[in-house]
Amino acid sequence: MSQSREQESAAGQAGTLNVVMAQIDFLVGDIPGNTRLVIESTRRAVQDHGADVVVFPELCLTGYPPEDLLLRPSLDLRLDEALETLLAAALPAAIVIGTPWREGGLLYNAALVIADGEVRGRYYKQCPPNYQVFDEKRYFAAGSEICLTAIKGIPVGITVCEDIWRDGPVEAAAAAGAKLILNLNASPYDIDKQARRKTLLERKARENQVSIVYVNLVGGQDELVFDGGSMVFDHSGEQAMEAPQFTEGLYPVTFLVEHHCQPLSQPALPEPSLEQNVYQALVLGVRDYVNKNGFKSVVLGLSGGIDSAVTLAVAVDALGPERVRAVMMPFRYTSSMSLEDAESQAQALNVHYDVFSIEPMYDSFMETLAAPFEGTSPDTTEENLQARLRGVLLMSLSNKFGALVLTTGNKSEMAVGYSTLYGDMAGGFDVLKDVPKTLVFRLARYRNTVSAVIPERVITRPPSAELAPDQKDEDSLPDYDALDRILNLYVERDYSADAIVAEGFERADVERVARLVDINEYKRRQAPIGVRITERGFGKDRRYPITNKWKIGK
Hints:
This protein has 554 residues and is an alpha/beta fold. Helix content is 38%, strand content 19%. The protein is built from 18 helices and 20 strands. The protein has a 7-stranded mixed β-sheet with strand order 5-4-3-2-1-14-15. Strands 6-7-8-9-12-13 form a 6-stranded mixed β-sheet, covered by helices on one side. Residues 17-257 form the CN hydrolase domain. ATP binds at residues 301-308, 408. Catalyzes the ATP-dependent amidation of deamido-NAD to form NAD. Uses L-glutamine as a nitrogen source.
């Protein structure tokens, strides 16, 4: 966070405003705890950074998204108590916080400016979003007025998240004389999201000739991950600083206020690779889900395949090896290579490792089912039984030791139903739920650049569920490169089957994949949640009816 000598000299000659961006991990529903975080963070920001104003994320008092907690009758009472606590705290700097606020019988997504024990400004979000994972119109009315407040004599405009993505709120504040815009955000992560934010902020700052402070929430909340990456852009559209993604902290920036409100530039952060970025999101999502929900540890089935290998690495990086248990559950079709590679990875990551054969249990079940199955041929029923026996073992360990079961299915498999209900889908959190198979391979390669913990054979061998002799995933699916591209078009971009064929894919493959996606919606409704990393994941994003007669094609 260094400044040049010229900047230090200029700062000494002109008035300054010290803004601290509080990129904090708040807990949904913990209004008293979040209020304490605001108070403690403000005092640290003043002590460590000489803050004049501390800016917090959107809805920081309730956490984001609070969903139907906003409908609870005691919401207003709890928020009133929080506000009284903040006003009585005699905070040594101005603060800008996000909170629900009720006026005239309507609830607003609000930002409050608090200074000297008083509410000095109040802003209601003008553009509550209602797309993708957002459903704010279910809860919030839209505001219509600007909020222009003076901080150290500087006219400052306040906006909230989506307001900056639309034309109107920033433009109105700038036209009213704002030299600085403080934008409070709870913007969830997806691949390339930070680049889109930067493009937007550059344009908004330049077109309106106003500096912008963009403060974003950090942390995991169910399937969403908020990546932080708070930023400052000057009035010409130049980026002045960027806080690291996925990292809590108080990030200061000093503004010179002689003419424009000009931020002093800070060194640019190294640009992360896509694989590093996604891996960090998965680690944060797992860590916060496990810790915020009070689980002591996690347990997962380690098969010797790439999905469970990456899941295990993420779990260890999120929680430490002492809180992770890996279980190999071999059957007669499990190869010696799988046994060797699973043990090798468990040793490399230093986790508790068990081997429990499911052979005796399988034989017992088949003996019981011999009469009703008489005269039938083996099929997927026997394959699914293997997966379900493994699920029973893992859930038993979960119940006995308070460990969350991590499932290991990737997005490609979840899309086409290449998974077993109450088997490998049995568990509480699916780390790779929104990660396409081709990206799983890339994540494995990336993790091994940090330290080689995933055996090379796990990455290079043909993927197999090992539920039948000599089984390979691509015996029943298109190759993963083609499959993932078809799925991207069909699931994330809503292309029709005909439109996907026009992109150069075989019609038979496209129609088969589309049909598998459609008929397996019932499975996905029963699947555990998992970290969202794409613009359209299964869950909050994509809501399709299970029972329908929509024809694929046009």
